[in-house]
Amino acid sequence: MPDLFSDTDTDDYENQEHDLSRIGISLPSNLLNSFDKILNSRGYSSRSEGIRDAIRSYIRYYKWMADMTGIRQGVITIVYDHHQRGLIAAITDIQHDYMDLIQASLHSHVSHSRCVEVLLVKGDAKNVKSVAERLMAQKGVETVKLTTIPLEG
């Protein structure tokens, strides 16, 4: 994964928030409605503050993934729409490409259209990140969560 942040970027992004930029985004209404409910329940003063908080969290997660090295044991959790054309085949192909990393998988039908899959992985951090990122990139995948720990000597 390329290093997208200099030391000053990662240390100072929260301190530079006085220099604001305006952006526009398009979101599906169900996603925005869910986001608004969370903002309301957590007491956010605005969508902008909630979006800034979500972006900060995303940056911390990206930096954590970029800093992973060595042999890792972990879990990849995937939630996806099984009606998305070609998605199940793509997920299966990715898993076959990483057969040496994936120790076990568990599949569950959450609803008529949604599935959750849990993969137990073990291997070099670079390869563990790679499988998670390939899964994230698939159209119809709602979420991918990677959790790992280093193996002790």
Give a description of the structure:
This protein is an alpha+beta fold and 153 residues long. The chain is built from five helices and four strands; from the N terminus they run αααβαββαβ. It is 42% helix and 26% strand. It is globular. The longest helix is centred in the middle third of the chain and has 21 residues, at 47-67. The model has no long low-confidence stretch (mean pLDDT 87). The chain folds into two domains: 7-66, Orthogonal Bundle (Arc Repressor Mutant); 69-150, ACT-like. Chain A, domain 2 (Alpha-Beta Plaits, 2-Layer Sandwich). A hairpin with a 4-residue loop joins strand 2 and strand 3. It has helices at residues 7-12, 29-42, 47-67, 87-97, 125-136, and strands spanning 71-81, 102-109, 114-124, 141-150.
Brief write-up:
With 153 residues, the protein is an alpha+beta fold. The protein contains five helices and four strands, in the order αααβαββαβ. Strands 2-3-1-4 form a four-stranded antiparallel β-sheet, with helices on one face.
Briefly note the structural class of the backbone: alpha+beta
**Helix content estimate:** 40-55%
Query: Unreliable segments (pLDDT under 50, ≥5 consecutive)?
Result: none
Query: How many individual helices?
Result: 5
- Give a count of the beta strands, DSSP E runs of length 2 or more: 4
Termini separation: 25 Å
Mean pLDDT: 87
- Largest sheet: number of strands, sense, barrel closure: 4 strands, antiparallel
CATH-wise, what's the superfamily of the largest domain? ACT-like. Chain A, domain 2
Biggest sheet, spatial arrangement of strands: 2-3-1-4
Radius of gyration: 18 Å
Which CATH architecture of the largest domain would you pick?
2-Layer Sandwich
Shape: globular
As for the number of domains, it is 2
Output the CATH topology of the largest domain: Alpha-Beta Plaits
Query: Strand fraction band?
Result: 25-35%
Task: Give the H and E element order.
Answer: HHHEHEEHE
Q: CATH class of the largest domain, anyone?
A: Alpha Beta
